Amino acid sequence: MLKENIQSLAKKYKEEFIAVRHHLHANPELSYKEFETSKFVQSKLTAFGIPFTVMAETGVVALIEGKNPSSKIVALRADMDALPILEENDIPYKSTKPGVMHACGHDVHTTCLLGAAKILNELKGEWEGTVKLVFQPGEEKNPGGASIMIKEGVLENPKPQAIIGLHVHPGLQIGQLSFRGGKVMASADELYITVKGKGGHAASPHQAIDPILIASHLVVSLQQIISRNLNPHNPSVLSITAFNAGTTTNVIPNEVKLMGTFRAMDEEWRFKAHELIRRNATMLVESMGGTIDLLIDVGYPSVYNNEVLNEKVKAKAVEMVGDAHVEETELRMGAEDFGYYTQQIPGCFFRLGVMNNEKGINSGVHTPTFNIDEEGIETGMAMMAWLGASVNP
Is 238 helix (H, G, I), strand (E, B) or coil? Predict the structure, then answer.
């Protein structure tokens, strides 16, 4: 009966929470600047009669107690920040802040968790345990809002036995959900490299130490770290994404600046690779007469779904939407700071289908035309409520 009541309330409140999503989408805020978003979330929780606290400046944490509150504690997480992207969608709820856009669906995640909160609170006499609601800032930017929330105690007082997160998937058809146990998403570290040489006239390269030539060799050499040191069955990516030097045709510059990203699915290999990058890059540059400044900004860990919890969550999803609507999530080299939570307690990060080709809704995340089929909001908030109430970690 609980499942049916959740489904009924999700249908009843669908339009209300589509309007919530429209408000959030029209008023996006960048990472760690989610001040108005946080106030909006707080106002909704107050209206629902749900107590909350604020941490990490803009994060909001709330508790809903069902019957026998100490029998189990499950955390549900949503992120709130937007991206520095100029929206190109022609929609009534288009971003009102030029250059800032909810292009990764965090407005949807927050909406679904608010919807789940209202449903769970109304039905708290029908389920057992405690649900901890985590509205998190700064998912899109190092060091990751999850890491700050954890440092400030989000996983304590009370300590959840498990945490569950939802993410929209523009490549998954509306009405579908996807799950995967074990490795799900990669770690993400940022590379900042300055290769220094000796500038000079382009017609007299023998009198210079050409940092462009050195950096070119370095870009190629870095790829061999992956191809010749890693088990090919273990996914990993190193991409140099910026190569900046020089201002004219006849001058060899003094330095070259490179930027890039390193991604891995295995934490042991991840930090071994860091040492290989440092050693190989330094040796190559110095052997060609240059010097190097190299920073590896350690970012998010890989996301690892606890296999036992994933199976429990997946089984509950089948109960809610049916086996035909549950798929397996593909491995993704994208990153998510949800990985910080899964390092601490069992976690499950799953996908909500929001694609609808018939409506032309299929743009990828982090693009200026990203949008969702909003029918998915009903599914998303029902699933989060159902999982919080029914999963026994």
Answer: strand
Label residues 284-306 b or e (16+ Cβ within 10 Å = b).
bbeebebebebebebbbbbbbbb
Question: Could you tell me if 20 and 139 lie in one domain?
Answer: yes
Residue whose token pair is 């979330």: 41
The overall average pLDDT reported for the chain is 97
pLDDT reported for residue 159: 97
Which of 274, 300, 326 finishes a domain? 300
Is the same domain home to 294 and 341?
no
Res 365: pLDDT: 97
Q: Which two tokens stand for residue 228?
A: 């010749």
Number of domains in the chain: 2
pLDDT, residue 53, reads 98
Contact 222, 157 (CB under 8 A): no
**Pair 201, 251: CB distance under 8 Å:** yes
Of the chain, the percentage scoring pLDDT greater than 70 comes to 100
Which residues, listed in sequence order, are joined to residue 258 by a DSSP beta bridge? 193, 243
Q: Rounded CA gap, 367 and 355, in Å?
A: 14
199-209 burial, b for 16+ CB within 10 Å, e for fewer? Answer: bbeeeeeeebb
Q: What is the CATH number of the domain that holds 290?
A: 3.30.70.360
Which CATH number fits the domain that encloses residue 386? 3.40.630.10
Last residue of a domain, one of 300, 315, 331: 300
At 333 the pLDDT is 94
Nearest-CA neighbor of 196 among 299, 285, 302, 306? 285
pLDDT at 360: 94
**Residue-number span of the structural domain to which 260 is assigned:** 187-300
Q: Average pLDDT of 38-61?
A: 98
Rounded to 5, what percent of the chain is helix, strand, coil? Answer: 40, 30, 30
For residue 356, give the DSSP letter. Answer: B
